[in-house]
Design a protein that fits this description.
The chain has about 280 residues and is an alpha/beta fold. It has helices at about 15-25, 35-55, 60-70, 95-105, 120-125, 160-170, 190-205, 210-220, 225-235, 235-250, 260-265; strands at about 5-10, 30, 70-75, 85-90, 110-115, 135-140, 150-155, 175-180.
Length: about 280
């Protein structure tokens, strides 16, 4: 199937980034969020990000205008009827995601359904839909405009044609593709989240300050960003949600989330997006 029209559900950091990448690659893109202001703001953020590239001489203003023109902000699932590929980028909650897909498939009978889930098994999500053979995992890295990697995850039910169509779209987006088995966390987060969680335990046990722990990773492991800095960037609520999925689905106590991570999420200290996490940020 020739895919030209992509819909992205969720106007948060990931959804906005995915929409920008798709529009820049020439696809017609819709961003849907239950909050109209968030959907509109997502398009404005994309325009602002591209305008910044224009100022730096990295992008022509004509290209910016054409890219933004391919994006529309919508608030009703009924407006997605023309979408050929729908990418869900909502919070890491299986109940929320399954409800979204029920509403999507009611108005897009032919579309491929894809989830940007970081950890939830694709087979389980697909089973909650009426066309599991047209369901797949499409996991972008954060932030999508900068990170080249995308994980493609097939559920047990995913058809060869669906996998082929999604791979073709992902290649048009200019991404490097890896294929991951349908196991909790897939490849990247199966490695990353235990690392971030262990950094939380290290802080909790007094092994060092946040600065010490992050500097150890940057200069001792040659990482571009420390684990606590990265957790703040991702969002501590998202890190916790993924850790909880790994713990529940795999049943191994080594995946249990650190108490300080749970407490910070309970306090609403979610990292950069709230202005406070392991570090404090100017809003």
């Amino acid at each position: 199937m020739q895919i030209e029209h992509i819909a992205v559900i969720g106007a948060g950091q990931m959804g906005t980034g995915i929409a920008q990448v798709a529009a820049a690659a020439g696809f017609q893109v819709q961003i849907l969020d239950v909050d109209e202001k968030l959907a509109v703001r997502a398009k404005e953020r994309i325009d602002g990000a591209l305008a910044s590239q224009v100022k730096k001489g990295k992008l022509e203003d004509k290209v910016r205008a054409e890219t933004v023109a391919r994006i529309s902000a919508v608030v009703s699932f009924s407006q997605l009827s023309g979408a050929q590929l729908v990418i869900e980028a909502a919070i890491e909650d299986i109940a929320v995601k399954t409800e979204i897909f029920k509403q999507v498939e009611a108005v897009t009978p032919e579309a491929i359904l894809a989830s940007n889930t970081s950890s939830i098994p694709i087979t389980k999500l697909a089973a909650a839909t009426k066309r599991p053979e047209r369901f797949i995992g499409l996991h972008f890295m954060n932030p999508p405009p900068l990170m080249r990697l995308v994980e493609i995850i097939r559920g047990l039910q995913t058809s060869d044609q669906t996998a082929e169509d999604v791979r073709e779209v992902t290649e048009k987006l200019g991404k490097v593709i890896i294929s991951a088995s349908d196991m909790p966390g897939f490849i990247v987060n199966r490695m990353l989240i235990p690392f971030l969680n262990e950094a939380c335990f290290a802080l909790q046990e007094g092994l060092g300050t946040p600065e010490d722990i992050d500097m150890g990773a940057k200069l001792g492991l040659n990482h571009p960003m420390g684990p606590l800095e990265l957790a703040d960037l991702i969002g501590l609520d998202t890190v916790l949600a993924i850790a909880e999925v790994l713990h529940k689905e795999l049943g191994d106590p080594k995946y249990r989330p650190a108490t300080n991570l749970r407490n910070m999420v309970a306090a609403g200290w979610l990292g950069r997006k709230t202005g406070r996490g392991f570090y404090t940020y100017a809003k």
